[in-house]
Write a structure and sequence with these properties.
Elements (H helix, E strand, L loop, with lengths): L2 H6 L7 H8 L4 E2 L7 E2 L4 E8 L2 E8 H5 L7 E6 L4 E6 L4 E3 L18 E2 L1 H11 L8 H32 L9 H9 L4 E4 L6 E6 L4 E6 L6 E3 L6 E6 L5 E3 L3 E9 L2 E14 L7 E12 L5 E9 L4 E6 L3 E3 L7 E3 L6 E2 L4 H5 L8 H7 L5 H10 L3 H6 L3 H10 L11 H4 L4 H9 L4 H12 L6 H9 L16 H15 L3 H17 L7 H4 L4 H27 L3 H6 L6 E2 L3 E4 L4 H11 L8 H7 L4 E7 L8 E5 L5 E5 L9 H15 L5 H24 L2 E2 L7 E2 H8 L6
Helix pairs in contact: 14-15, 16-17, 17-19, 19-21, 24-25
Protein name: PcfJ domain-containing protein
Length: 720
């Protein structure tokens, strides 16, 4: 329906009969608080046809009795197009709401809506007798509900038709599919036996379905069937009422029109101990993945579709309920499974011809085909790897979504950054990504490593990049032997020790120890020596940091030496000036405030913009109390104690600081005063910038507070 056309239609007006009925519609006052006032009628309905559009106006008592002649709401119905729309005159807007969602004035329920005979006849004639109700509102609501239902069906029919168009090309399962599932798809088999003291016992094998003689058996122990040689698990009859195998995954690949489909199945088997020779096999198709020639994929899953209220194939991802997952839903994972290989021949020369999947399935017991084609689209060189027999490398790429160095070249070896000699070694040793990385390293340094050494590094997933800190001093074989020995002593895995080893050498270098000395870089008892250096580093940390700051900010030591004139004391407090950088660092370490890890304050000290001084208690002059940032004239910018806090005792200290500022002003020279003016201007500019940027602080006691406000509150200018 065109809204513009509907808007031009004549607005419905109440009849004289309706107005008279409204005037006699006196509200009833009830006893219940939630239903205090109620109109006997409250709602009046008028209907007429206008150009094949049924207009239904809704009027209310209080508007009609007040002289209003415009409806509260008008419903427009087009029966031919099977649709409706409403116009709310109060809000002056169109709405698709159903009648039960339209807000009515207080006291109006619509349960006893008034509607004259002509309007009723017009409504039922237009809508049909199936919608006739004693209450007109209920009949209209029923019609709206049916319209919505039909619209929903049409909406979902468009979706499902497109899905069904794809699914119709999916073939039936092969004739021997169920037999294949039983023998290949389900790998868990059993030998059921009656307990006996005899040495030889007769049991029943579920795979070959024959009675076999076994000995030395035990309930739940694994073994092999003496007849078919399949792996089985022994089950004593009577120990369990029911035996159920684990649910396993199997895949069926088929052509699907011009595309191909991967069908994912889950299967298991149940054995009743009373009749274990007659197992019950269960299998279900979980998902279908349709791939086109460019490996673009569409996923379908079997489930209940609310749109059409039926079980069917649905386009989308399968999510399952999981009580341990946030939101209680998670994507249903895929697992490697057996591939029905007979069907591959039918599609090998079409979609799978240049994929390498046929070769992978032939050489692998289980495969996760969907992941394979995802990776193949991302890394097209996967086909070459498989066809070259580099299955382990290919599996790592598929399983871990990892990538490798690959560059188009005249041969696969050169494409991987190696040569034919090393390519053969990679294949023969079933090497993965780590093995390849060591071969690349080997080729770059023109050294040939033993295959068993590279295999050892591959086993522990140790790459050359992780050992660059020591490869300039030790051969890979020496590193292997050293890590093996240290792993045995420490009872840790070799890969875990690499970080310890690197950390040890870094600390040794910082402490001035010659890390090129074999005694140092091949230290005995690595973990013990590492822990010793950690302790030594803690002790030397301040000295090292102080040296770094002195190097970064030349002249800062001289600034510290010239701060003695700022010292002052009374019977309660005293101001102490640092003698060297280490004093400042120790102060920050003790109080754990923002001096640690920030160069800002040292930069200001070098420029003599501000200085760091210590506020101490007179009875504990060596114990950090508050750290002060002061300007050359004694203006206190900040005063902070543990974790950048201020405690209530600072109020008492502020009185002391005022006295200190007053006596300090007499000691200042001309240069100090010039520096003070510069410092003041810089401070004001900094606070203005912080306020403009609206930088907030989220630390203890300051959550959401502007940093500019905090600094201004903390400021104590030297009035003297």
């Amino acid at each position: 329906m065109e809204k513009r056309k509907l808007k031009k239609m004549k607005v419905l007006e109440p009849s004289e009969e309706m107005v008279l009925a409204a005037e006699s519609d006196i509200p009833v006052i009830g006893n219940m608080a939630y239903d205090r006032m109620k109109y006997p009628i409250g709602l009046f309905i008028q209907a007429e046809m206008d150009e094949n559009i049924l207009k239904i106006g809704f009027f209310v008592t209080d508007i009609l009795t007040a002289g209003g002649r415009r409806p509260l709401y008008t419903l427009f119905i087009d029966k031919e197009k099977d649709c409706f729309i409403g116009y709310d005159y109060r809000l002056k807007k169109w709405t698709n709401k159903m009648l039960d969602k339209i807000e009515l004035p207080k006291g109006v329920k619509g349960d006893h809506a008034w509607c004259d005979l002509n309007s009723r006849s017009q409504i039922w004639e237009t809508l049909g007798e199936e919608y006739r109700k004693d209450n007109v509102c209920y009949g209209l609501f029923h019609f709206e509900d049916q319209v919505r239902e039909r619209q929903k069906i049409q909406k979902h029919l468009k979706r499902t038709t497109a899905w069904d168009q794809i699914m119709k090309y999916v073939r039936e399962t092969p004739k021997d599919w169920e037999k294949w599932l039983k023998k290949v798809g389900i790998t868990q088999n059993y030998i059921f036996y009656e307990y006996s003291r005899k040495k030889n016992i007769t049991g029943y094998c579920t795979w070959c379905e024959k009675n076999v003689v076994v000995n030395g058996v035990k309930h739940n122990r694994t073994g092999k069937c003496p007849n078919c040689r399949h792996k089985i698990q022994y089950k004593a009859v009577g120990r369990q009422r029911m035996v159920k195998s684990k649910e396993e995954t199997a895949y069926l690949l088929q052509t699907c029109g011009d595309n191909f489909v991967i069908r994912e199945f889950r299967a298991d088997v149940k054995y009743d101990m009373v009749a274990y020779t007659k197992p019950v096999y269960n299998w279900r198709e979980l998902r279908r993945y349709v791939f086109d020639k460019d490996l673009n994929e569409k996923e379908f899953y079997w489930g209940y579709y609310h749109g059409t209220e039926e079980n069917r194939w649905i386009h989308g991802s399968l999510n399952t309920y999981n009580p341990y997952c946030w939101g209680n839903c998670r994507y249903e994972l895929r697992y490697p499974g057996h591939i029905y290989k007979k069907s591959l021949h039918g599609i090998k020369n079409n979609q799978l011809k240049r994929s390498g999947f046929h070769e992978l399935a032939r050489k692998s017991e289980t495969v996760e085909p969907v992941a394979y084609f995802h990776r193949l689209k991302q890394y097209p060189y996967l086909e070459q790897l498989i066809k070259a027999g580099l299955n382990e490398l290919a599996k790592e790429i598929i399983g871990n979504s990892t990538s490798i160095f690959y560059k188009e070249a005249d041969s696969l070896g050169h494409a991987l950054g190696i040569d034919m000699f090393r390519l053969n070694r990679l294949r023969n040793n079933h090497g993965g990504k780590v093995f390849l990385q060591w071969l690349i390293y080997e080729k770059g340094f023109k050294k040939v490593m033993k295959d068993n050494v590279i295999s050892w590094f591959s086993k522990w997933q140790i790459c050359p990049e992780e050992l660059l800190f020591v490869l300039d001093r030790m051969r890979p074989e020496q590193i292997k032997n050293y890590l093996e020995k240290q792993a045995k002593e420490s009872e840790k895995k070799p890969k875990e020790l690499i970080g310890t080893w690197k950390d040890y050498l870094d600390m040794a270098s910082k402490l001035g120890i010659d890390v090129k000395d074999p005694i140092i870089y091949r230290v005995r008892k690595l973990e013990k020596r590492h822990n010793e250096l950690v302790q030594l580093m803690i002790e030397k940390k301040m000295d090292i940091k102080a040296e770094e700051i002195a190097e970064k900010f030349p002249g800062i030591e001289n600034v510290c030496e010239n701060l003695r004139k700022y010292e002052y004391s009374d019977h309660t407090f005293q101001i102490v000036a640092p003698r060297k950088i280490k004093d400042i660092l120790e102060e920050g370490e003790e109080l754990q405030h923002c001096i640690i890890g920030k160069d800002t304050y040292f930069a200001r000290m070098v420029k003599q913009e501000s200085y760091l001084l210590f506020l101490r208690k007179k009875n504990a002059p060596q114990k950090p109390y508050y750290t002060l940032e002061v300007e050359p004239d004694g203006t206190v910018r900040q005063k902070r104690t543990y974790f950048n806090r201020q405690n209530p005792d600072i109020k008492q200290a502020e009185k002391f600081l005022l006295r200190w500022q007053k006596q300090l002003s007499r000691k200042l020279n001309k240069e100090d005063k010039i520096l003070s003016l510069k410092s003041r201007d810089l401070r004001k500019k900094e606070i203005e910038d912080l306020r403009e940027k609206k930088i907030k602080v989220n630390g203890f006691g300051f959550t959401g507070k502007l940093l500019a406000d905090i600094l201004e509150e903390d400021l104590m200018e030297n009035a003297a």
